[in-house]
Amino acid sequence: MRLFVYGFGTLKWMIGSFKFADIRLERTFVADARSNFHNILFLIEYAFKAITAANITTVGIRGKNCAVVISQKKVPDKLMDPASVTYIFSLSPSLGCVMTGSIADARASVTRARGEAAEFRYKYGYEMPCDVLSKRLANINQVYTQRAYMRPLGVSMTLISLDDEHGPSLYKVDPAGYYTGYKATASGPKQQEAINFLEKKLKNKDAAPGSWEEVVELAITTLSTVLSQDFKATEIEIGVVGAPKEGDDEQGEPQSLFRKLSVDEIDKRLQSIAEKD
User: Fold this and answer.
1) Fewest CB within 10 angstroms: 79, 93, 110, 207, which?
2) How far does the signal peptide extend, from start to end residue (predicted)?
3) Which of 25, 21, 32, 2 is nearest to 149 (CA)?
4) C-alpha 48, offset from chain centre
5) 173 assigned to some structural domain
């Protein structure tokens, strides 16, 4: 009988210990979850700060028959080859983007985007639309915000394309996993100033009016105004869809292919702006 009572008491003690351990484990889990949640929020904030810390302002504008992205071009070291410094990338023949933020993260994101676009082309037989790629990249970025051990990329991606179904498209994807279409947008330290300028220029308009040259000039003017700086042709880089092939007449057949403007083409647009002023 004593042995039974002793065994029963030991069993009660063990059950109580397990319950206490469960309570402690639950409290620890809740505390860790809260800590991870706050850490994730901080990581997202740091990712957005990395975009402005790069000190590069970029602008994207959608026209009626074209779309344009423009970025400052800063060469941090005199010994660097300027041709190897870029924030504008081609993702597929009809898709291009400008990256703002950490260039290392930018190259990683561009590589992933190129892979997604190539896989879509192989699987479905046509080029990946801009909105579909933007959604896919936003979903990938959002996964990086779900775990504290996954660092969100400190970069913002602005994509442009031109296709028969949607016409010119302009989308932006941020580190938090949010994406949406724009008629004009900006990223970087002078983002808000550029957006305010573009809101005045495009008020009550669905897209920037005029030819592709005029849209390019509007993008240059926006960047020059918010930075209070007159650019040389080598100090900016411009990507465009809806412009003629390089070497063709400026009024030639518009192309749906993405390409970067040459230094000579940028210089022509700068001269045109100077003549208007």
Assistant:
1) 79
2) none
3) 32
4) 11
5) yes
- Residue 145's pLDDT is 86
* Predicted pLDDT of residue 25: 43
Residue 66 lies in a domain: yes
Residue 58 to residue 222: CA distance in whole angstroms? 10
Q: Tell me the per-residue pLDDT of 107-144, one tens digit each, with 9 for 90 and over.
A: 999 999 999 999 999 999 999 999 999 999 999 999 98
Percent of the chain at pLDDT exceeding 90: 66
Long-range pairs of 242-248 with CB within 8 A, sequence gap ≥ 24? 242/63, 242/65, 242/66, 242/67, 242/162, 242/168, 242/212, 243/66, 243/212
Number of domains in the chain: 1
- CATH number reported for the structural domain that contains residue 90 in this entry: 3.60.20.10
Residue 114, domain member (yes or no): yes
Q: Under 8 Å CB-to-CB from 12, ≥6 apart: which residues?
A: none
Expressed as residue numbers, the domain containing 231 is: 43-276
3 part of a folded domain: no
Structure tokens at 14: 């063990």
The answer to whether 155 and 51 have CB atoms below 8 angstroms apart is yes
pLDDT of residue 40: 63
* Residue listed under structure tokens 């639309």: 129
Q: Which residue has the tokens 């260039």?
A: 103
How far is 168 from 165, CA to CA, in rounded Å? 9
Tell me the C-alpha to C-alpha distance, in Å, between residue 45 and each of 90, 169, 213: 28, 28, 37
